[in-house]
Amino acid sequence: MQLRYNYRVYPTSGQRMALARAFGCARVVYNDGLRARQEAHAAGLPYIRDTDLQKQVLTAAKRTEDRAWLAEVSSVVLVQSLRDLHTAYRNFFSSVTGKRKGPKIAPPRFRSKRDSRQSIRLTVNGFRLRDNGRLYVAKIGNLEVRWSRPLPATPTSVTVTKDAADRYWASFVVETAPHITADLDFGGDLDAETGIDLGLTHFAVLSDGKKIDAPKFLRQAERKLKRMQQALSRCAKGSNNRAKARRKVARQHARVADRRRDWHHKESTRLVRDNQALYVEDLAVSGLARTNLAKSVHDAGWSQFLMMLEYKAVKNGRYFGRIGRFEPTSQICSACGIKDGPKPLSIRHWTCERCRTTHDRDVNAARNILAAGRADRLNASQSAGKTGPVPAQRVEAGTHRDGQTTVVGISAR
């Protein structure tokens, strides 16, 4: 499996200028390649192959006066920028033809120098880890890295990123087996399993009745953010004061996101450590984010939390399962199994008409999630047994069948 480890980087003033130059060159090459393909399509010409496009916007462009400054940046950065364009086009074509599942993907768009996030990616030919802990990046220099944890294996690539708060990060991709990166000792019963019902009043309700309150980090910082954004709106556009105010707002948003991510890591680690199997509901987060609950849904960060649960379960040999989002977990009595019909959200407790059991709405849903997850897991294992030995997958865990590798993210905690 592939894992991503993220670390804070502290470049010097000269290295920041070199990184800004690299960000700009990577953006220009990406836009030049996109423009060339769009013009070829408008003229009715065939699709430009990847190798021909690289010769056109890199090799030939460096010989011209307008693009001679591309030679000041490592060629690895420019080639990887074009690879990003190739990937964007392949994802778009796969989405149009139906080969790629999920929501439809729009065609590639031009990158702007005013984007809040700028990044470059380098393969093993463009970076090296020094013995003194520094990260050498071609034509950038030795960057100071805050190593919060050691890398489990030699990285295959690194992405250097600058975020909206003017912070720099180095994100390494390493490829290793799950048992090598396991870092949690099991701390619960051997048969411990739990169903998790996510919500807004309580962030998560477990099938054993335990409720985890929602921290609501954005709501806590809302008043301070409001004052900062008002001060930003009063600054003249293009002024230095506006740039300073924008950085203050970005740093406050980054602080909120960091607190939320840290809390997600702690809670997901505890759940994975104490349970052998975890079952959750496959929520339609993107749909809920378009309702009047959008701010609370984004503040909860369900998708990030479930992603952490999933990759930590894979790392540490736990089972992680998702049940269908249309499973009527709030309508079924977890004691007798009767379906009692839909109920408005205002009803938090209800009594079963058959067995007269009084249920907490969220606890009952968590118990139904646990039962449905166990049933799906049992059915899958029985189906595998009926068909005989199941051959090993052609790809490692975390890789799609079409060969596109999913990189799991790990923060620098």
How would you characterize the overall build of this protein?
- It is a single chain.
- The chain is of the alpha+beta class.
- It has ten helices and 15 strands.
- Strands 1, 2, 3, 4, 5, 6, 7 and 15 form an eight-stranded mixed sheet that branches. The protein has a five-stranded mixed sheet with strand order 10-9-8-11-12. It has a two-stranded antiparallel ribbon with strand order 13-14.
- Residues 387-407 have low confidence and may be disordered.
- The radius of gyration is 25 Å and the shape is globular.
- Helices cover 40% and strands 18% of the residues.
- Helix 1 (13-42) crosses helix 2 (50-59) and helix 1 (13-42) packs across helix 3 (75-97).
| Basic shape | globular
Taking pLDDT < 50 over at least 5 consecutive residues as the criterion, the unreliable ranges are: 387-407
The end-to-end distance, rounded to whole angstroms, is 20 Å
Outline the biggest β-sheet: 8 strands, mixed
Number of strands: 15
Strand content: 15-25%
Number of helices: 10
Tell me roughly what share of residues is in helical segments: 25-40%
Decide which structural class fits the backbone: alpha+beta
Based on CA atoms alone, the radius of gyration comes out at: 25 Å
Q: What is the N-to-C order of secondary-structure elements (H for helix, E for strand)?
A: EHHHEEEEEEEEEHHHEHHHEEEHE
Mean pLDDT: 89
